[in-house]
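Sample entry (171 residues):
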Amino acid sequence: QAGKLGEVKIAAPAPFVLSFLVDVLAQFRDRHPTVDILIRERNKTTIFDMLQDRVVTLGLVNAPVYDKQFTIIAGFRDPIRAVVGVGHPLAFQQRPLHIEDIYGHTIYRVSMFPRMTAFIDSVVEHARRGSGGAVIKVPMVMARELVSTGKGVTFLPESYVKPAVLKGELT
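Predicted structure, serialized as tokens:
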């Protein structure tokens, strides 16, 4: 009677909301114009709580799920990429990039799933001189914007940076 044929409620971390969910939402909306959609940006712990409380029907998380009370219906691989702005000196390097190449530059450290965060932490520790000795921990959204200015390096999911790479803002 209300004209809707269903409802989809999704919770996902910011990188998912800002990257591939945009295209997925547009495609879904074209195919199912009478289905209501609710997308909430939340962190992994909150997403699990929302699933348990049935506030959302689908949760997207950026880490392995070991809890047996959740059913995993799909898995995705989203490579983590070292990212710099197009004006950054590393963007002009003619040879393949080596991890040591980034040690002379500020590294914006973001939290991700545990293994990737541990890797980035080890890189940051080796690169302290490039950042003036300080570790700069920022949210993913901020890291992407900071490196787009041509200063610093960060590591972000490919799906999250792809639109900016295609626009020529990041490399």
